[in-house]
Amino acid sequence: MEMLATIEAKTAAIPPIDAAAPLKTATATFALG
Amino acid sequence: MVRTRVGYAGGTKEAPTYHSLGDHTETIQIDYDPSQISYSDLLDIFWRNHDPSARAWSKQYMAAVFYHNDGQKKLAEESREREASKRKKRIQTQILPFTAFYRAEEYHQKYRLRHERNLLQEFERIYPASDDLVDSTAAARVNGYLGGFGTSAELKADLNRLGLSAEGSRYLLRIVDSKNP
Fold first, then answer.
1. Which pLDDT tens digit goes with each residue over B68-109?
2. Cα(B100)–Cα(B9) distance, rounded to whole angstroms?
3. Burial (CB count within 10 angstroms: exposed 0-12, middle 13-18, buried 19+), residue B114
4. pLDDT: is A24 or A11 the higher one?
5. What domains are defined for chain B?
6. Partner-chain contact A31 B28, CB within 8 Å
7. Which residues of chain B have a CB within 8 Å of the CB of A25?
């Protein structure tokens, strides 16, 4: 139970924008000099 | 934009570091949601934010697009041609195949955020592991606002999604208000 409580607390603390991050993304790599 | 990280790419040295970079180039890598922003839009931002006619004095600081697939290659090459005819100058920016990316050391990541101790600590409490903090969209957004990108109106619309305390939110808003009211 202690572990579940820890996980729950961590999940609750995650910023909403992170929790809503799309699962499917594309990647781009740039060097700006 | 979902995640950002800085690191080293384009070279052959295994596991490069800032002080032992080998033949790598300093890069930014972005994970984005293609339903929200296109690769062409990212290329536009890329061209607007560097001088493509400037000669690179070292491979470390060369300007380049590292394409991840044929579609990105085609769009990158087309965009370089457009820049060349628009600027009427020789373009030094390279279009190269992506091979590998090595994350830079922790102290290079989310650079602006790292200089705001109170805000950084709020994210460190949420994400004790450094890589998790680097991969946070919220941390990337806050880093961008601290860098002077985004207006206070945009921040106000974003604020309740960033996971900051009331105090942290007020602090960030004051900074952005002074930079981009």
1. 999 999 999 999 999 999 988 899 999 999 999 999 999 999
2. 6
3. middle
4. A24
5. 3-103 (3.30.1060.10), 110-179 (no CATH)
6. yes
7. 2-3, 31-34
Q: How confident is the model at residue B150 (pLDDT cuts 50, 70, 90)?
A: very high
Task: Please tell me whether residue B5 adopts helix, strand or coil conformation.
Answer: strand
Please list every residue in chain B whose beta carbon sits closer than 8 Å to the beta carbon of residue A7.
none
- Across the range B41-60, mean pLDDT stands at 94
pTM across the whole model? 0.91
Q: Do B162 and A15 touch (CB under 8 A)?
A: yes
- B residues 129-158 near A, CB within 8 Å? 136-138, 141, 158
Tokens found for residue B154: 């945009």
Determine the number of helices (DSSP H) and then strands (DSSP E) in chain A: 2, 1
